[in-house]
Every structure is written in C-alpha cells, then in structure tokens.
Write the structure tokens for this entry.
Amino acid sequence: MRLHRLDITAFGPFGGAQRVDFDELSAAGLFLLHGPTGAGKTSVLDAVCFALYGAVPGARQGGSLRSDHATPATRTEVTLELTVAGRRLEITRQPPFERAKRRGTGTTTEKAQSWLREYDASAGSWKDLSRSHQEIGEEITQLLGMSREQFCQVVLLPQGDFARFLRADAEARGKLLGRLFDTHRFAEVEKRLAERRRTAETEVRDGDTALLADAHRMQQAAGDAMELPGHAPGDPGLADAILSAAAVARSTARERLTIAHCARTAAESAQAAADRVLDDVREVARLQRRFTEARERAARLEERADAHREAQTRMERARKAEAVAPALDLRDAAEAEHRRASADETHARAALPETFAGAGAPGLVAAARKAAEELGGLESARRAERKLAELAAERADLDRQERADEEVLQDAESWLATWEATRTAGEARIESAQEAATRAEQLTVQRDPAQARLAAARQRDAFARDTDDTQAHALASRERATDARAHWLDLKEQRLKGIAAELAAGLVDGEPCAVCGGTEHPAPAQKIAGHVDRETEENALAAYQRADEERAEAERQLGVVREALAAATAEAGDAPTEQLAERAEELEREYAEARAAASGLHTARERLAQAVLEHERRVAAQQQAALRAAARVSHRDRNDLERASLEEELAQARGAAGSVAARAAQLERQVALLTEAADAVRAADDTAQRLKDADARLSDAAFRAGFDTPRAAAAALLDDAAHRELQRRLDTWQSEEAAVRAVLAETDTAAAAQQPPADLWSAEQNAESAARRLRDTASAQDAAARRCGELDRLSTRATASVRRLAPLREEYDRVARMAGLAAGTSADNERKMRLESYVLAARLEQVAAAATVRLRRMSSGRYTLVHSDDRAGRGRSGLGLHVVDAWTGRERDTATLSGGETFFASLALALGLADVVTDEAGGVRLDTLFIDEGFGSLDDQTLDEVLDVLDSLRERDRSVGIVSHVADLRRRIHAQLEVVKGRTGSVVRQRGDQM
C-alpha cells in the first residue's frame, strides 16, 4: 500500500482545503511531520484512517470530525489517493453535514457520502466503482487485509501503545495481540468447548437424575428389600450401583411371591371345606323351617273352614242366577226404552197449541198435512215480495242519482261564473313571461363582455403587482452580477500580481523556466499569505457567470410580465376593478331576475290550456246532468204504479204476519211440530207393549231356575269383579291345602324335623373366617406379583437408560478433557496456558524475532527480545516478553529498560509487529508507515542508529513518516510536512527533500 495524495477540507483543525502530496514526501524515503502542539499533526493521520475505514482511530472516536473554523457552507470532506494490490484508487468520504434549510429557518442534516474510484491507465481517466459505505469498507478491508484496529497499530505505529505493551502484563498483551491477529476464533473454540462440556454435563446429570428417580420408584415398590446407593447425579458408578441394587430387590421379591402362592393354596382348601359344611347346615335348617311353616299353614286353614263353605254356597246360587240374567237384561232394556219414549211424547205435546193436547197420532198427522198445503200456496207471494224490494231499491237509486246531478249542476254553474276572469289572467301571465324572456336575451349580450372586462381588470391588477416584484428582483440580480464581476476582477488582479510564485512552484532544477528559459533557479518567488490560485479565480468567474445568467433571466421575466400587463390593460381599459365588478354584479342580478320571470312562460301556457280543457269538461257535464234528469221522471212514474199493485197483493197473502216470509216461517214450524208429536205418540205406544212382554218372560225364567221371585234371582247375581274375587278365594284355599299336604308328606322334611335344631351361626362364622384368610393370602400374592412386575419394568427402563447414557457419558468425558486442556485448567496442561494464549504466544514469538533484527542494530548489538512462556505468579503463562542484555549475559524483564531504551525497543517491536501482521494479512506490501513521537528520549548516537534503521527501510522501497517535536530531526530530515496553526484554522506546508 502506497499513499499518493490526501485532500482535507473542514476536517479537524483545518478550516479550509489542504492537500498533502505523499509522492513528493516519499521520494526521500523518510519524511518528518512536525508542528506545534494542537496544530493537527495527528489529525492528518486521522484523515488517512477516516478515508480508508470511515472512522478515526479508537482513542479519538466519539468527537465531531468537522472543523470549528470552517464556514457554514463548507462541507467536511477527505479524499485519499493510494495504490494497493496494484490498483490505483481514490476514496472520498463526507461525514454527516448540518446546514441551513433552503426554505424557512432552522437546519437540516445531510447524510454521510462516500465515493470509490479507480484509475484506468488504458483510458487515462477515473472510473466510478461504488458509492455504498458498506461496499467500499468491504473492498478496502479485503485489499488491505487488515481491520481498522490492525491498520492503526501496523501503519500508524503509536509508540506510546507499544511502550505500554512492553511493560504490560500477560493479560494486557493478550488483549492487544488478540485485536491485531484476530484470534477471537480460538477464544470462540474455548467458549464452544466449555458450552459443549456444560451441555454434555447437563445431559448426563439429567439422565442420572431420571435414573435415580427410577431407583426411588424401585425402592418404593420393593419396600424394605432394597437400599439406594449413596451417589449423586453425575457421580461415577451410580448406574452400576443402581443396577446391582435392582437385581437384589428383584430376587427378594420373587422369593416372597413363591411363599404367598403356597399360603393362598392352603387357604383355598380350607375355604372349600368350610363352604361344604355351611351348605349342609343351611339345608337342614331350611327343611326344619319348611316343616314348621307347613304345620302353621294347616292350622290356619282349619280356622277358615266355615268361611270357605259359605263361599262355595254363594258361588253355586250365582251360577243358577246366571240362567235368569238374559231375561233380566231384556226387561231392563224395555223399561228404559219406554221411559225415553214417554218423555219424548210429553216434550212434543208441550210445544203444540192447547187445541192439540188430547189428539192422537192420526189427528196430529191430519193437522200437519193441512198446514203443509197452506205453506205451498205462499210461493207466488214470496216472488211478489222480492220484486217489491227490488223496486224500492231502484227508487232509492233514482233519488241518489238526482241528488248527485244537482251537485254537478251547482258546481258547474259556480265554476263557469269565473271563467272569463280566469282566462284573462292566464293570458296576462303568458304575455308578461314573454316580455321577461326578451329582456333576458338582451342582458345576455351585455353580461358576457362585462365579465370578460372584469377578469381582464383583475389580471391587470395582479400583473401590476408582479411587475413591481419582478422589477425589484431584476434590480437585485443586476447588483449581484455587478458585485460578482467586481470580485472576479479583483481576484484576477491579485493572481496576476502573484503569478511569479505560482510559476515558481512548477520549477524543476535542470529544466528551463517557462518565462525566462533559464535552467537554474536560485531564488524562486514564494507564495505570500492570501495568494490567489487559479482554482479560486475560476470559482469566482463561475460565480460571476451564474449571477449574470440570473440577471438575464430576471430581466426576461420582467419583459414577459410587462407584456402581459399591457395586454390586460388594453382589454380592461382604465376603469377601476371595483366599478367593473359592480356593473357586472348589476347585470348578473337583472339577468337572474329576467330568467326567473321568463322561466314561468311554459307553466303559464300549460295552466291556460288546462283551464280551457276544464271549461269544456264542465259544460259537457252540465248538459249530461240535464238529460239524465229528464229520463228519471218517466222511470219514477212506472216504478210507483208497479209498487202499488204488488203491495195490495202481499197484504192479502201475509194476513196478520208482518211479511210473507214470516207467515211461511210460522207454517213451516207448525208442520214440523205436528209431525214430531205424531211420531212421539206412536213410539210411546210401541214401547209400552214391549215392556209388558218382557215382564212375562222374566217371571217364567225365575221360576224354572228355582227362585221364588224375579227379585230373588236378581239378588243372587254377581258382577264380574265379585265373581272373580270369590273364585280367587276358593282357588287359593284349594292350592294352600294341597301344598300343605305335599310338604307334610315329604320324607326329607319329616326326617329333618326329627333332628336337633341346626347351628347355622357357628357354620357361617367358620366359613367367613376361612374366606377372610383366603382374601388376605390372595391380596398378599397379588401385591407380591405387582411388586415383581413393577420391579421388572423399572429395571428394564433403568437398564435402557444406562445404555442410552453410556455414549453421553463418554462424550462428556471426552469434551470435558478437551475443554480443560483448551481453558488451561486440566492437569495435563502443565503451564496452564489457554488455547488463545498458545496461539498468541506463537505470534509473539514471531514478533520478537522480527523486532530483534532491528533492535540489535538500534542498540549496537546489545539487546535481543525473546519470548517467555513462564508463569507469572498465580497467572497463566505464554505471553511473557524479556530482553537479553549481551553486555551482562542476563535475561531481564522489558519493564527495566530506560526511557530511551524503551523507545527504540518499542519502535523495533512496532516494526517487527508490522512485518508479522503484513504477512498475516496475506503479504500485502506496506510502502508507507508513520511513527508517532518518542524520539526526544534518545541521545545523538542512538538517534543516528535509529534513523539508520528507519532509513534502511528505503531499501525495501518504503517511506516512513516520523511525527515528532524534536528540533534536531528538522535538520536531519529534509522532506518535511509542517502543520501551522492559526486563528482561522491550521494549514499544512510541504517541503521536499531537494528544497
């Protein structure tokens, strides 16, 4: 990596634009960066770091990058041109920029910007690559092969950090080396192994916990036959101890199961014998109770013998009375029928007039026939009555029509009386609407020009206001253009005055001058403070050209506005806008009134036409009503004659009744009553004869059945419920008597009755005791069987768990051993060195070897840096750094070096570290290095030796920039970059090796 050019604008202490030409400074191989404290020497290095990585070194992060000396309109920007990996690149970065808003007040923040360009040698131009922060950062990191932290340590070489590195303990060295060599992956390996060890340990402990839980369940199942081992989860031997205890518990449980089986077999035999004895005793007791109960039932039968004989006698009389039952039923039916017929006859006679109270059936029939004949003669009278009703309705309709026609005539006469006035008013409204329409057409012709003049007047006023504003803007633009031209001419004049210094800057010894042609340049002109260069002049010229263009545009806009104002004034005239607006409003109001009045023309015509039609309808209705009145007079006379004839006929037909229909209803009811009474009289006579015949047959049947009277036969009859109850009592008696005789005749029952009373309680107690013993032994056997099954199941699960845990336990042992070795806690790791420390120790050993090459030259062969892996106190070993003194032959700690020795030792260490990190980064060549401070602690001889070492870097085509306050270095190193601070910000002054 070689730096070519650095442009800084408004960055750090630099208020304006500054440029550093590294090609010129690097030509000598060794250059000095100096300046007073606070001038901004380190800010130059910060700008390089910011251009590459978008951030400054870690110790100076967090502050603002923008210069407090910069003008508000100047944006902070850093541009770095460099060559890396054979590619010439240009990186430009702008941090976020807070500027004034273009509109309104306040500020707004613009986002950070980045540009990456590459020089195309074949085309001779720059080619844009990217504007993405992330893409540019990834591209630069990949090309350099270093992170920002590594770059700051390897290229910028902060000596204070390496002095502390020499005196630091192993932990501090580890942190720095870890950042430089990116060994976090080895720390991640340690962390990963520790996590895997914890995970495996957790899995093993969880498995042992589950196994121990199964052991507790086996202990609960085995009772006192099992003892748990005194191991905790994760202890070695826990699985074997649990499996051994489980085997002992299973053997003991099987022995107890065998003993319980033998006890249950004996209990089953004893229970069977007790059950047989109990069955025999129960049978004897049952037979004895049976015999006793039979004797008691026989005694009760003897007590009820008289009642049984009475029931038999009653059953026999009931059977005889059943032969008389049909005659009794027939006589009861005839009597009931006769009572109903007599009641009907009495009811029918009560509805007849008293003249028919004693009449027989033939007389009633004859009277009914006579009334029916009279009813048939009233049919013609009914038709006459209906006709009379129709005539009455017709007369009422004629009267209603007459009243309606009278109303029509009166309404027509009243309406026709106002017809002339209505017609005259309608014609007047039509004429008025026509006049309004004509007026509206005339106003339309005047209204549109008035509106156009009003619009033109308003545009005239607006253009007048715009003309004032545009004229003021054009005047301001002319003033700005004049000022810009004067400024440009001033700068041009100043540049011409200092053109000699500008030409002198391009002079080269041995080459002719562009002015005089001489090849020697003994006293070239120097640029004075405030020198105006070509770029400043061109910027002023561009500003003047922009201002002149703005002036021309403003004058053009003024001409356009003036032309529009003239056109609007020509159309609107000189009349004020308010006067034109009032005239336009007046015309608009008159036009609206005329339009409103003219809009009623169509309505007025329609109303007049409707009135004409209504007049014609009223006249026609009046004429039709007169014709209908004349026709109704003749119709009413015919109706009156026909009604008089019918009323005379109906008076003769209805007699004393109110109407023919009422007379017909009376005759119809009389016929019905007479007919009903004749039928009732005949029915009563028939039922009386049937009752007499039934009495004779009943008396004959009772005599033949053996009863003295029909009443006695009726008393002997039983209904169905009484008959069934009596029969049930007789059947129960017979069944009970037969059952008692059968029991008393049984041989076993009689023999049992001769034995002593059976002791059932003692036999039941013995059987219950035997059953209880059997249940106890069966429960004990079942419990022993369940215990064996549960122990077998839990043992199988425990065995499976042990087999499943075996690979996990092996994995845990292996991972724990590897994690202990990597963490430095294992006994096999004698030096207690962590894996990351081991890797860093190898890197430190390489750094010490590379640093020793330069340290021996700086110290005239006296000192050598060596790496030590001894432990420091209780700490871990691996990152010790010692210095070997060739004068004494002793090895001592680097903290014992003096101030000057510490400086060149740390410088050698920094250069060696740069070489190792460069190789680690893939061999990227670092052609530009910076060394920051520390040279003031060296004597003249040591300083010469150190400068010789740094000067030897040129052999490898490297350039080294020394950042120092030491005044003697300004005499020794000719190529210099001076940073000068002032009230308006710092500036850089560059001096090459030949000047």
